[in-house]
Amino acid sequence: AFTGHKGLLAPQGIGGFVLRESIIDAIAPLIVGGTGSLSHTEHTPSFMPDKFEAGTLNLPGIAGLHASLSWLLQQGIDSIRMHELTLTQQFLDGLQQLEAQNLLRIVGKRDCNERVGVVSISTDITDIAELAFILADKYAIATRVGLHCAPNAHKTLGTYPTGTLRFSFGWHNTAKEVTVALQALKEVLTHGL
Questions:
Q1: Residue 83 C-alpha from the chain's centroid
Q2: Based on the structure, what is the number of domains in the chain?
Q3: How many Å apart are CA 69 and CA 50, to the nearest integer?
């Protein structure tokens, strides 16, 4: 099962799943009802993919997912990954300098081996929600703050109940933006809010 709006860059509200043919009959759909393929009945068809597509399909979402997948294939997954990890390593290198000054703590790995372009930090200097607000308001830097729908992961990491401040890097980010983010963090954590 997959969601379209994360790494696949599609709009929210679209996703999918893949099933082996041998288990299709063993799974009952969660939502049933009429479909356009057998409109004379209110029962969901037993054939694929209609068995799991009751009601009106999310056609704008499907078109958006198709467009995003086409774009991803055009750019090349390896090219996108290399770009994201290059920015991530640049960010981690800068964060390690700030960590050495006791301004923040990197939560998780400090290198790009077996990771994606997402980095979380915590700090004792200020509330991370306040820090996220200032980064957005003053520097136009978008982050995500909190428990990220994973409270047990944060309990394991020792960041519960406040969570972390998360930075994500993608194809459209630049090395200059990473530098600006590092400078903003240093400025806010050194000079106060």
A1: 16
A2: 2
A3: 22
